Queue: 2 jobs
Job 1
Amino acid sequence: MLNVQSNVSLKPYNTFGIHANARYWAEIQDPADFQTLLHLNEYVAVPKLILGGGSNLLLTGDFEGMVIRMNIQGIELVRQDERHYWVKAGAGVNWHEFVMYCVKRGYAGLENLSLIPGTVGAAPMQNIGAYGVEIEQVFESLEALNRQTGEIRTFTHAECQFGYRESVFKHDLKDQYIITSVTFQLDKTPTFHTSYGAIAETLAEMGVTDETLSIKAVSDAVIRIRRSKLPDPAEIGNAGSFFKNPEIPKEQFEALRVEWPDMPGYPLADTNRVKVPAGWLIERCGWKGHRTGDAGVHARQALVLVNYGKATGHEILALAHEVQRSVGEKFGITINPEVNLV
């Protein structure tokens, strides 16, 4: 049953641990809850913020509107054939728990995305990715509520217009729909992605051979790597990678490599562009381990901005702007936030 509350602290609901309040708060357990909300006249004109796991969000102050937390649960095997499983999950399902559910049952394709914070509903909005795999590679369709009418619409892969950490829900359809469920097409025969990052090295350290390689082994390796590099939000407030990896023209990359021979780059297929790790750029600008008050750049991963306790959203954002400025001055490259600023 829908329950609207007033003046709710958002600190437990954002992984940065920022102190901020919502004027109104509602938790959606079922699409019908949102449809009920649409008919409550006193909230129709109130600005609304849709919240999943709060793991890709920087709050820069109180939200003078309604925060709607999507908490629709449930995982269902919709169908299968000789090659694939189609699995549907509610938008409020914890992402990592969903990945573990699939790994345990031998549903292949999500193992490289283990231990990413957040919820299933947020995954396609951001087209989350890690270690050579992105959501769009395993995505089948999603269901979403129209925020004005309450009608449910199904979006196909093509209609989502996926890009690097992008989808139609961040651009043309921004603030128009609320994702309620996502269906994934997963494989019965795994295609292993082990060449990205330190996965192959970590698998070797774990004693995994070509003969014993499995989706669980890949998942375990990814979890080990992430835990070694990224801070736990339960211990240090953060939202994971704060910046996107920039994509620059190949000519610019080659010119920069003259001065910086060790600059890593990953050519993008069918383009004349190269993806450069933002963490490397930030580290070369001297930010790794930097701290101003309680706002800082993580000591082990320069791509992660952290809240050591009492930093405000404005202080984290000010640090982010300084990092962007220095990277631009040193390399002539613009790095953009991956997190959503509110």
Job 2
Amino acid sequence: MAPQSTPKIWSLTWPIMIEMMLQFMLGTADTLMVSRISDDAVAVVGISNMFFNAVIILFSLITSGAGILIAQKLGAGKPDEARKIGIMSVSITAMLGMIVSALLIYGTPFFAEALHVPDNLRELSHTYMSIVGGGMMITALNLSMSTAVRNTGNTRSPMYIALGMNALHVVLNYAFIFGAFGFPEWGLKGVAISTVISRAVAFCFQQHLFRHAFGVPVLLREFCRFHAKLLKEVLRIGWPISVNGASWTFSQVVIFSMIASMGEQPLAARTYMNTMESFAFTFGWSLALAAQIQIAHLYGAKKLRQAYYGAYRALGFGVVVVLANTGILLLFRSFIISTFTKDPWIIDMAVSLLWLNLALQPGKMLNMALGQSLGAVGDSRTVMKYSLPSMWLIAVGVSYVLAVPLHWGLYGIYVGMISDEYIRGLLCYFRWRSHRKKHLFAEAFREPAAVRSSDNSSGVVPL
């Protein structure tokens, strides 16, 4: 079968961007509504969600590798193999999700202690973590299905599902937190219940979308079939991405634990900063994910020059946008922070940290764009080798030294995180350049001019 036409970067980006923005709005709505309960409740949601992000990384062992291979197989004209990979990824993540849900329902006291959650927040954390954690199987299924669908080039449909899920979540939050519409006033417990219900409703639509994503509807019996060769390909790409993602997330959990040991105010301030920073890099992350899908399609179709230059184009657009978004946050900084909290210490700290985002966000974009591009061509193992030492020696090690022994507090945390982003980003940049000269793209740049012109010698990827 002929290779599938390569999706344009903008047609991939804007639905992902809207979906990410909706997720950002969901997190903002959560934080804003929970802040009406107390700053303690905000701190619990912040550290719990960071922990859940670490748990979700486990599912990326399968979903990340599967997504890249689905795009590559479709680009190479092998839709049957893409279908088999998508189905396997859903089956395996469902099994992982069941195990994780059981552990989180019964093991929250252990995890809260491991995260150094302050004693006065333990009861709140147990309530929130056990309910949301118990729904991790639904989260796993949603992740695997949406990743598969998105890598077929259909980024719009997952966006519509996210829109509905976020709208429902906000309404249920309002009902369950404040006792509106005749519901009981459940507070933080209501936020957790709202999260699980909205994800379950999204799953109902997500499974219908996935079933029709590969042409002929997927049958239930297909989920019982495993293809060893394809699974090996998935794991080859997926395990380094998963290890890399897990390492980053767990490093953030360790950093959050450091902040938690400083007290409730620094923990709440960092949670509010997470919410605001999400706005700054949402478009950049969306662009990096879209570039990964497009580059994987191009690489599978052997359009190597377009694949190579596509990474730089995504990087250039991304840096401009994340700086513009950070500028907007700085312009309205006092108003935005005071919307979340009235605590003067938290407000002053968050405003100060926002200035450091002018340095942080371009480094994040460099890392995201080139890291995702390397993953798209199957070079995820190198990214992992670069990233692990930097995350733990720089992001964690430097942050700890500056924040604790030297008493820089949250400023020290940010210096460590900024240094880590640029070190990893620059290493990915030099690795990507090396592929043009010596490795994956070298053949395309050695071809005669007549051959190159037939493969878009300018390297411009259409928007």
